[in-house]
Amino acid sequence: MVYLNSFEKHLEEIKIKEILEFIDLSINESAGSQSTLTKVFSKIKNLSESAKRRVLKYAIVSLLAFDSVTNVIRIIQNSNIPKEDKRMAIEVVQNQKEDEEEKKDAFDKYKAGYEFDISEAGISHIKKEEALRLVAYKLGDGRITVGYGHAEKPGKTKLKVGEKITKKEAEELFKKDIDVATSGVKRIFNEWEKKGLEIKITQKMFDALVSIAFNTGVSSLRKSDVIQHLKKGDYELAADSIKSFKVSSKFPGLSKRRSAESQMFSIDLNI
Asked: What's the pTM value of the predicted model, to 2 decimals?
């Protein structure tokens, strides 16, 4: 019985190969969707359901290269074939359409980095990570900070520890700082393109990079492994290197932030 099943499967594979060759020949000879599908339906009558689906997918993908989804569905609906075969064929067309739309959506997400601006989601993320402080205080590195992580070097700042600012002033400082971080990230991609290096990213990747630049400075980001991996087009390594960037025993709280930025960067990579 096992031998018989194996032999029948072998014969089915031969039949499938013949039908696929027929489809290729019909496409090359511009036989037309209706003629091609009509003959394909007659040839798959005695095939198993999985074999039918395989052949139909091949035929429909081939036909959709030069015909519309609407016309192919119309031909299927008007065909004199069993209801189950008709249902299966229409399902294959619709699945193929959805696959193409998903690929297009994914492709459209990727642009040159300088084409983006920080999104509202990105702004909310940074504000949440920085946390609003209306009273100036010293950071571990000696800088004085206030508002949403606005930091100034000692000796070059007019801020004094304990000085209070208003929420409006904090928003004004944030706007300036976010503009610096955003334009800095854009500049990196602009420079790359001028050198003939085209690296495309998504909005979420851009937001993650701006968040890092806001926190560590554009210059620091530029020299990071994150940017070096991205420059080579290795998105996965770039995402992974975000997790440890500038994380130290002095600033252990950054570990959680970097993890969130890495997740934000990699979400469109499906890794």
From this structure: 0.64
* H or E element, residue 256: helix 254-266
Distance from C-alpha of 53 to C-alpha of 106, rounded to nearest angstrom: 26
Instruction: Please identify, in words, the CATH class of the domain defined by 111-132+165-269.
Output: mainly alpha
| 56 closest CA partner among 8, 13, 20 | 20
Domain boundaries, the chain: 2-109, 111-132+165-269
* Parallel, antiparallel or unpaired: strands 133-138 and 150-152: unpaired
Residue 126's DSSP bridge partners are none
Q: Alpha-carbon distance 82 to 85, whole Å?
A: 5
N- to C-terminal Cα separation, the chain: 44
**Residues 125-170: pLDDT tens digits?**
999 999 999 999 887 777 889 999 999 887 788 888 899 999 999 9
**DSSP letter at 94?**
H
- Decide if 114 contacts 193 (C-beta within 8 A): yes
